[in-house]
Amino acid sequence: MIALFDIGGTKTRIAVTTDFKKFGTTVVFDTPKRFSDALAMYASHLRELMRDGAITGAIVGIRGPLSTDKSTIVSETVLTDWVERQIQKEISLLCGEVPVYLENDTALVGLGEAHYGAGQGFNIMAYHTVSTGVGGVRIVHGAIDEAHTGFEPGKQIIDIDATVGKYGETTLEELISGAAIEKRFGKKPYEISQGDPVWDELAHHFAIGLKNTILYWSPDVIVLGGSMVVGVPRILLSDIDRHVRELMVGFPALPLLKDATLKNLGGLYGALVLGQKYFGEIPVKTTP
Q1: How far is CA 128 from its chain centroid?
Q2: 257: helix, coil or strand?
Q3: Are 22 and 64 in contact (CB under 8 A)?
Q4: Which of 28, 114, 119, 137 qualifies as a FRET site for 144, CA 20 to 30 Å off?
Q5: Which DSSP helix (H) or strand (E) runs through 154?
Q6: Collapsing DSSP states into helix, strand and coil, what is residue 105?
């Protein structure tokens, strides 16, 4: 069996697969902020999952920029205690010293949407998520596009006058993320009614970022996910599309904009796809 991890800033999801086509029951729990607490919880859940057989490898999606060897995360605003911890090694030990591969969690969700969700059938797909933070990935011919360090579209500068940001500029993440909205209004985004004009304002800010995505990545389709986009209430797709078209007047062909369809399981579906790449087939655990 291959263990599949989707470690987000708010929730963690764990499942196992025996064929890289589907996964079993998903265990969902709050992501511990302390790394040691997370390891203890993972050990407990893995013991339950391993009752059906030995784990022979793992694919781990985790938020934050990864180190160049993809063994840990190098910076993080939510899981600060996880930074530069031996994440790959510790999860390998929990699973019985098996091969473990780390990938950015947003990249895995995008990969899942490209193969199982709204991005099926498109050669070049851009995926953006807006939840606690803002992330994204470019998928080309069904694979995560090559990159030197990864993709962080949420860090792009939208407001150079720094009406929100602290360091001389305001990023897209500081304008539209769930954490930014909570800081701005003093309440959770889901406590703001759908009829509030702020949702259309957020759609306009998001459209500015998506204009940059279109200009730099030139995708066939942009798939949008995350609780701020596919939750309730939400930044409406119709509003985002309207603002993008207003900003892109004069451009002959615009990519389709689509809502993500895999809900909270996109990362696990992406892990299935990545497992096929790294393992090819489910390895069998042998005893010496």
Answers
A1: 8
A2: strand
A3: no
A4: 28
A5: none
A6: helix
Q: Tell how far CA 249 is from the center of its chain.
A: 30
Task: Provide the 10 A C-beta neighbour count for residue 79.
Answer: 22
Contacts of 97 by beta carbon, 8 Å cutoff, 6+ apart: none
The whole-number average pLDDT for the span 211-240 is: 97
Calpha distance 201→197 (Å, rounded): 7
Pairing relationship of beta strands 157-159 and 143-144 according to DSSP bridges: unpaired
Query: What does the DSSP 8-state code read for residue 231?
Result: S
**From CA 114, how far away is CA 134, in angstroms rounded?**
19
Note whether 139 and 111 are within 8 A (CB): yes
Q: What is the pLDDT of residues 233-267, one digit of tens each?
A: 999 999 999 999 999 998 888 999 999 999 999 99
For the chain, domains (ranges, CATH) are: 2-107+265-279 (3.30.420.40), 121-261 (3.30.420.40)
pLDDT band at 196 (very low <50, low <70, confident <90, very high): very high
Spatial separation of the C-alpha atoms in residues 38 and 124, rounded to whole Å: 35
* Of the candidates 26, 31, 20, the residue with the CA atom closest to the CA atom of residue 59: 20
* Residue 156 amino acid letter: Q
Count CA atoms closer than 13 A to 126's CA, side-chain side: 24
d(Cα 81, Cα 103) in Å, to the nearest integer? 18
Dist. CA 176–CA 184, nearest whole Å: 10
Q: How close are the terminal C-alpha atoms of the chain, in Å?
A: 19
The residues pairing with 135 across neighbouring beta strands, listed in sequence order, are: 129
Q: For residue 217, is it left (φ>0), alpha (ψ between -120 and 50) or beta?
A: alpha
3-state SS, residue 259: strand
Token duo for residue 30: 């709050």
Strand partners, 225: 129
Helix (H) or strand (E) holding 64: none
